[in-house]
Amino acid sequence: MRISIDQITSTLNNHLDNDALLHVIDESNKHKGHVGHDPRVGLSHIAIQIVSNLFEGLSRVERQRLVNSWLNEFFTLGLHSARYDLKTPEESSLACYP
Q1: Domains of the chain from N-terminus onward
Q2: For residue 41, what pLDDT is reported?
Q3: Contact at 8 Å (CB) between 65 and 47?
Q4: For residue 51, what pLDDT is reported?
Q5: Which residues are within 8 A (CB) of 51 and not within 5 positions of it... i.e. 6 or more apart?
Q6: Torsion sign (Cα): 98, 49, 89, 92
Q7: Checking phi first, is residue 36 left (phi over 0); if not, alpha (psi -120 to 50) or beta?
Q8: pLDDT (0 to 100) of residue 33
């Protein structure tokens, strides 16, 4: 099974509330020739930006562990790396998001 942005986005949206903001970016091409890059898998490297109330009271590491648990199936299928920007709505008001 090839991993796609749509599959990852759908999985993440299943865990997020309707007010959450989500961006998933394919960064696989930036890693050609690196360990973990396998075009047969589809996406191998992604960047994820989420703004959600679910992150209230969680440390950066706890937020990453939570999202990793949501994506476990994809890591098993060959997703090699995910880069995260995980913020609460209050934190996101301090920065610009696309």
Answers
A1: 5-92 (3.30.300.90)
A2: 58
A3: no
A4: 96
A5: 20, 21, 87, 88, 89, 91, 92, 97
A6: negative
A7: left
A8: 57
